[in-house]
Automatic annotation (TrEMBL):
The lineage of its organism: Bacteria, Bacillati, Actinomycetota, Actinomycetes, Mycobacteriales. This is TetR family transcriptional regulator. InterPro entries: TetR_C_31. Residues 51-158 form the Tetracyclin repressor-like C-terminal group domain. It holds the Pfam family TetR_C_31.
């Protein structure tokens, strides 16, 4: 692009970063909405830990990998820019909701796990997922297929349940 093209649309670096964050969040919301639709179709296999594993594995391919890189860069900047953090909050909340829903589905039918357990499992699951995605962004994937990731996710969820005080 010619010099000055970006500055024609975004007068400041901050304006450019905020626009990039808004676009990343917009794309994330659209993807999460589409995945929620697909979760209703058993043939699509986007349910439970296996579905979550498939979704996370997309991050290791384009265009999701580039978006993940941008998201991590923006997240680091958001620590110093509350307005930018607010822009990214919606997609972060949707990912947390997805993790919490997967954890709730993981528990046997008819069981009613205590909300604090589901909360702890969702937090651990989300932290684990973020770590896996960061390995993708760094170019050193910790896992290379959804089945392996599914087993690890189930282990994280079960592990949190196993160490909870009675």
């Amino acid at each position: 692009m010619p010099a000055g093209t970006a500055s024609f649309y975004f007068r400041t670096r901050k304006a450019l970063l905020h626009a990039a964050a808004a676009r990343v969040a917009e794309l994330d919301v659209a993807d999460f909405s589409r995945m929620a639709e697909l979760a209703g179709d058993p043939a699509m296999q986007f349910t439970g830990t296996a579905g979550l594993a498939r979704i996370v594995m997309y991050v290791n391919s384009e265009p999701w990998l580039t978006r993940a890189r941008a998201r991590y860069e923006l997240a680091l900047l958001a620590g110093r820019d509350a307005e930018l953090a607010t822009t990214l909050d919606e997609s972060a909340e949707r990912l947390y909701t997805l993790a919490r829903d997967v954890v709730a589905q993981w528990h046997p039918d008819g069981s009613a796990p205590e909300p604090a357990l589901v909360e702890d499992q969702a937090i651990a699951t989300l932290a684990f997922i973020n770590g896996i995605m960061l390995t993708f962004v760094a170019g050193q994937p910790a896992v290379d297929n959804a089945d392996h990731l599914d087993r690890l996710l189930q282990g994280v969820i079960a592990g949190v349940a196993a160490v909870r005080p009675d």
